[in-house]
Design goal:
The complex is a heterodimer of chains A (125) and B (306). Chain A is built from four helices and five strands. By secondary structure, chain A is α+β, with helices and mostly antiparallel strands. Chain A has a five-stranded antiparallel β-sheet. In chain A, α1 crosses α3. The longest helix of chain A is centred in the last third of the chain and has 13 residues. Classes of the chains: A alpha+beta (125), B alpha+beta (306).
Chain lengths: 125, 306
């Protein structure tokens, strides 16, 4: 048996666009919980902090993001879901603010985007 | 009698129930044991006697035979893996995401992930089976809080850290409910793979306390290894195969309570890029024989040969 999750996608979302990106993730995702896909910024390019995600996905997701054509709202979206926010996220992808790459190693992709993990100091124990 | 074959089939439990063998006939723990055996209903009486006599098939389920708290996660058992958190779509193929991994200890401490993008994936090479995380955002947490005895516990894991840009460790296996991005959330950490040498297990709550390991041996990136720690009268730790001796560590106890079991998390919000072949958490100190059986079981699951 072959998995339907034949694609991977990597995203980096500027901190101020996390809400919009979460509405898009909910629209493209599989349940209401996907509105919490991006939680906090953990990477930075030195000036802007980014929340990141990487996942396997079905071709329908990469197809939609490559054509920037959103499907109809699925049944699973929660009451707080706002399609206009998802559309704003798509606009941010078009403008290059939200970074998207398909079928790449996420850590190599972060380097290509000049993103580094926001360091957390090790406590002395 | 039919030959007993370890198959890990959850449906056998239903087979017994359909055959009229109920929990009133045999104790619940025995029934839970047999749901992992390929025994048919007709062979149940004989198999039950074998189990009482010690049996010929050892599984980690026996660690929990007296109702001990804990969890046993086994990615090689596809009947315990589901693509979604609700457990409606089973994992069937290499590459499927895992939103729910059921606890095989009988304690229902299942591990799940509600966000699709944060689910690790199931992998197999046809022989070995594991969950693989991307080191970006993948993790699983126990669905509810797991009660534990801070003075008597045992943890054994079969895993490999793949490196390649992911966080190198330490790993957070027990969370106490604080912010996932804060070190204060870490109740029990595991330093086996971390670049910080001479540390094996770290307690961070209520105060930072360390058990120091006398060996500097650490697994190489990508090397499958079984690591265990136990806390009893003396805390002990071993990494197989890189560390051949059992380290005696200063005995320090956790504060007993309830916590979240966590897989693939770093100690302060990072995520592990790597594989988990098996994970066992037991809220008591095992005997040496039980510990060796557990570690051998996980070595088999991860292909580790000493």
């Amino acid at each position: 048996m072959t998995t339907q999750y034949s694609q991977t996608i990597t995203l980096a979302v500027p901190e101020h666009l996390i809400d919009q990106a979460n509405h898009l993730a909910c629209l493209m995702g599989e349940s209401a919980a996907d509105i919490n896909t991006f939680r906090q910024a953990t990477y930075t390019n030195g000036t802007t902090a980014y929340a990141v995600a990487h996942t396997v996905c079905k071709p329908v997701v990469t197809d939609a993001l490559s054509t920037l054509t959103l499907p109809p709202d699925p049944d699973h979206v929660p009451p707080e879901y706002d399609r206009t926010q998802a559309e704003a996220a798509v606009a941010a992808i078009q403008s290059g603010e939200i970074l998207v790459a398909a079928n790449t190693d996420p850590h190599e992709q972060f380097k290509e985007w000049n993103l580094e993990p926001i360091s957390v100091e090790e406590e002395l124990v | 009698m039919d030959k007993l074959i370890y198959k890990g089939t959850m449906n056998d439990y239903r087979t017994f129930a359909e055959a009229g063998i109920t929990e009133g006939s045999y104790n619940e723990r025995a029934m839970q044991y047999f749901k992992y055996l390929g025994a048919t209903a007709d062979s149940f009486n004989e198999a039950y006697k074998q189990a009482l006599a010690g049996g010929s098939v050892w599984t980690p389920l026996q660690l929990f035979a007296n109702g001990e708290q804990g969890a046993w996660y086994d990615p090689s058992d596809l009947t315990t893996l589901y693509q979604d958190e609700a457990g409606t779509t089973p994992v069937t193929a290499d590459g499927d995401p895992v939103g729910l991994m059921m606890d095989k200890s009988g304690n229902d401490n299942h591990a799940s992930q509600s966000v699709a993008a944060s689910r690790p994936i199931y992998r197999t090479d046809g022989t070995l089976h594991w969950l693989e995380s991307d080191g970006v955002d993948d993790f699983l947490d126990s669905v509810g809080l797991v009660p534990y005895d801070g003075t008597q516990w045992f943890i054994s894991t079969a895993m490999a850290v793949t490196g390649g840009g992911g966080y190198p460790g330490p790993w957070r296996f027990l969370r106490d409910g604080g912010s996932p991005a804060a070190t204060t959330d870490s109740l029990l950490e595991e330093y086996t793979n971390s670049p910080f040498t001479r540390k094996a297990v770290i307690q961070r709550y209520p105060s930072i306390v360390s058990w120091y390991d006398n060996s500097a041996a650490r697994p190489a990136a990508g090397e499958n290894q079984v690591s265990w720690q136990t806390q009893g009268s003396v805390a002990r730790q071993q990494v197989i195969p890189r560390q051949t001796t059992i380290s005696e560590l200063g005995a320090k106890s956790l504060t007993s309570g309830n916590a979240t079991l966590s897989l693939f998390r770093g100690y302060s919000g990072q995520f592990m890029a790597g594989r988990i072949y098996g994970f066992i958490w037991l809220s008591r100190t095992p005997s040496d024989g039980e510990r060796d059986n557990t570690n051998q079981f996980l070595m088999d699951r991860s292909g580790v040969v000493v």
